[in-house]
Amino acid sequence: MRKLTFFSLSFICLMFLSVSAKASDFAAEFNEYEIEEAENMKMNFDADKVWNIKYKGCKNPVYVIRRNVSHGVVYIVNSEFFEVCYSATSKGFGTRYLKKAWSTVPHQLNSAVINPEALKMQQIITPNKVDDKQALELIAVFLPGLINENYKHLLQ
After folding, report:
1. Phi, psi of 77 (to 5 degrees)
2. Looking at the structure, do residues 18 and 58 belong to the same domain, yes or no?
3. 114-131 tens-digit pLDDT
């Protein structure tokens, strides 16, 4: 009986360690990124400023488009395969659904890539007011958490 308990406990520890190692590998994958100002892209709406985020080893750039709106500032995060909106208002900084008029990615594709539960969890990342630099850093750090596991390769 003691041997069975020892082996069971050992097995559980190994499983825990392998899951922990995989989680830390994921976090390390997206720790390195560059944020650069980009030229205005051709869009269906006016943009105040545009940046791109390039994660280490990523071939697909992710664009961040800044727009001033009546209730604050929105940052539209856009790639060929997904898009999401981060909003900076008096209530704080976090995600929200993108207006249909601003959308360029087909809804079905975007729904497959973006995790709605993660989107809801990131509705308020910070209650503090943020400037562009802070917003871009928060987006770069939190964006990988919005992508469903099967589509993480879009950032690699």
Report:
1. -95, 120
2. no
3. 999 999 999 999 999 999
62 and 19 both lie in a single domain: no
> pLDDT tens digits for 19-57?
333 343 444 455 688 888 987 565 555 778 999 998 887
Residues 16 and 56 in one domain: no
In this structure, the answer to whether residues 17 and 87 fall within a common structural domain is: no
User: How many domains does the chain fold into?
Assistant: 2
Can you spell out the DSSP letters for 134-153?
HHHHHHHHHGGGGB-GGGGG
Q: Provide the token pair at 60.
A: 């697909």
Model-level pTM? 0.76
Q: Determine phi and psi for 133, rounding to 5 degrees.
A: -60, -45
- Please answer whether residues 126 and 93 qualify as being in contact, where contact means their C-beta atoms are separated by less than 8 angstroms: yes
Q: What is the CA radius of gyration of the chain?
A: 19
Structural domain boundaries, residue 79: 33-155
Rounded CA separation 80/75 (Å): 16
